Amino acid sequence: MKTVAFRKEVQEQLEKIQRADIVVGIPSFNNARTIGHVVRAVQAGLAKYFPDRKSVLINSDGGSTDNTLEVVRNTSIENYDSILLHHRVEPLFKIATPYSGLPGKGSAFRTIFEMAGALDAKACVVVDSDLRSITPEWIELLVKPVLDDGFDYVAPLYHRHKYDGTITNSIVYPLTRSLYGKRIRQPIGGDFGFSGKLAKFYLTKDVWQTDVARFGIDIWMTTTAIANQFNVTQSFLGAKIHDAKDPGSDLSAMLYQVVGATFELMETYHDVWKPIRGSEPVTAFGFEYSVGLEQVNVNTGKMLKLFQEGLKNLRELWVAVLGNSDFREVERLGTLGDREFQFPLALWTRVIYDYAIAFHNKKLPIEHLIKSLTPLYLGKTASFILEVEQMGQEEAEAAIEKLCQEFEINKEYLTASWK
Amino acid sequence: MTDFLDLILEPLQEVFHAIRQFLPNLLAMLVILIIGILVARVLRAILVRFLTAIKFDSWSDRMGVTTLMRKSDLWAKPSLALGAILYWIMIIIALAMGMSALKIQAVDNLVSQFFMYLPRAFSAIMILLVGYMLTGFVSRAVLIAAVNSGYHYAKLLAEAIRLLLTVLVLAMVLEQLQVAPGIVLAAFSIIFGGIVLALAISFGVGGIDAAKRMIERETGEKRTEEPKDDVEHI
User: Predicted ipTM?
Assistant: First the structure.
């Protein structure tokens, strides 16, 4: 397996450091505004919870033009006295470098994995560079299960607004849970902890010239850990608040990236997921508490309008993917008014499974297939919002749990059609 | 008496002589035909095996070739259909070669013209196939993108694109086949130009009110805002 070649100065730094207990990786691209806070939180977390561990912070950058690398190099905590009772024993090393390979988070992570491997790190963490809600405690929660409790992979657990993360809530979480039998609540959270052993295992996979390198790295890391029998857990990190996404970013492109990567992994691990039935809970670290969340404005009318447009214009496509019987049920939904609109859970489950089967059978070019799911997804999202409008966070979570159970009950439908 | 017998026997002898000269050519033609049929069968079998190995049928499903065949009432698998096409092409070639073995001048000219036309026919078929697949791909991409953008006339737009591309592909095919090239060029220009002109007029006239509203918005008139949507899908 071809490895990444480091720049001369990075190679010299690695040789000087020799080895590390903990590596914290931060991928970045034009995040000068926010990365400083993330770096300080990481520094404080390592100083507070792992003062006697040799730690390295690695910033893997995608060619930023806003001096992100300089911000990382120049950021440090001036006065530890205000936040720590005891001073750090071991120094914290910092490496900020551009990564090589296909542009994307996966390539950034690969560089971090390579450096963690070169330093023979025992535990690694990756966090997003635009996090506003990261605290020093995140470092403890993502590293301790690996260092002290023998886990290989720590997924994040966030408290998010009931309307947020709908791709996760309605597709990725129920699907991943029913396929691989593990209830990882946030499989594409973006902030993970993992062992050095798992980092080395990731590097043995030949995925760095594929879409995994561009945008599929999060689901790939989670699925690879579960499917290859690594010890997985999750840690409660509180709220996840990051920089507002570009409002012009395309939902169908997001769906294509996330759902496409998930379906692609089904191809790779079909021998693993086919015999699994039901799911088991995954241990959770951290003290779960309620988090005050900002109000999220929603426009279900617009979502349902797009669903109706899809029903009118994508009829032939949907019949080819869903079959006549499921399509007729979807068509019936088009006759419901906005306030009474409800997307049945069993139907939604079969829609996702039908799309997975169509992906497997290569019925259409992949991008066309998954982007044609967008109006159906918006219909489901609108239905969920209307259902949980008057509910609290816990009741909304119970509604998601019902959907997950539906996915598990209907798994036979998927395995029978997957040839 | 001898002269009378000569008069009867001479033509018969000439015919017999001509037949005797023609028979080896006929035999050669039959042998060429038989060998051609055998070669055609072998090549068909090899091609079908190769296409099955590279999953040509599922690729055809994806690219819409199978759908086109079904619409044309062809129910065979695409790989078998291609095998059949190769088989009959080989039979025609064997027949043409066999007929040239007869050494009849008129037939020789016909065969030579046929072989000279074959490359054009082949490239016309390729243009048709590739053009059909590309047309389907582009119009489906436009349809999905327009639907996901909330454009009300997504299907109409996709069909208009399909029509334009189909006219373009057919014109290219006819031009390649050298079928009345002057007429085809003129007809294509008129049809294509007409479609584009119709679209320009309909958008121009139909969009007058929309353009007016946009200008009024720019010059400071308020309009009620759509309710915001802050959902973070990911």
Answer: 0.84
